[in-house]
Amino acid sequence: MLEHLIQKNSSKILLVVLDGIGGLPVKDGKTELEIANTPNLDQLAKESALGMHLPVDYGITPGSGPGHLGIFGYDPVEYQIGRGILEALGLGLTVRETDIAIRGNYATVEYQNGHAIVKDRRAGRIPTEENRRITQKLKESIRFIDDVEVFLEAGMEHRLAIVLRFPQALPENSALINDTDPQKEGRSPLEPIGKNEQSWRVADVVKKFLQRASEVLRDEPKANYILLRGFSQKPKLKSLEERFGLKACAIAVYPMYKGLASLVGMDVIDVPGQSIDDQISVLRELWKDYDFFFLHIKKTDSYGEDGNWEGKVKVIEEFDRKLPQILELKPDVLVITGDHSTPSVLKGHSWHPVPVLLKSPYVLGMTSGRFTERECLRGELGIFPAKKLINLMLAHSLKLSKFGA
Amino acid sequence: MLEHLIQKNSSKILLVVLDGIGGLPVKDGKTELEIANTPNLDQLAKESALGMHLPVDYGITPGSGPGHLGIFGYDPVEYQIGRGILEALGLGLTVRETDIAIRGNYATVEYQNGHAIVKDRRAGRIPTEENRRITQKLKESIRFIDDVEVFLEAGMEHRLAIVLRFPQALPENSALINDTDPQKEGRSPLEPIGKNEQSWRVADVVKKFLQRASEVLRDEPKANYILLRGFSQKPKLKSLEERFGLKACAIAVYPMYKGLASLVGMDVIDVPGQSIDDQISVLRELWKDYDFFFLHIKKTDSYGEDGNWEGKVKVIEEFDRKLPQILELKPDVLVITGDHSTPSVLKGHSWHPVPVLLKSPYVLGMTSGRFTERECLRGELGIFPAKKLINLMLAHSLKLSKFGA
Question: Can you give the pTM of this predicted structure?
Answer without folding.
Answer: 0.92
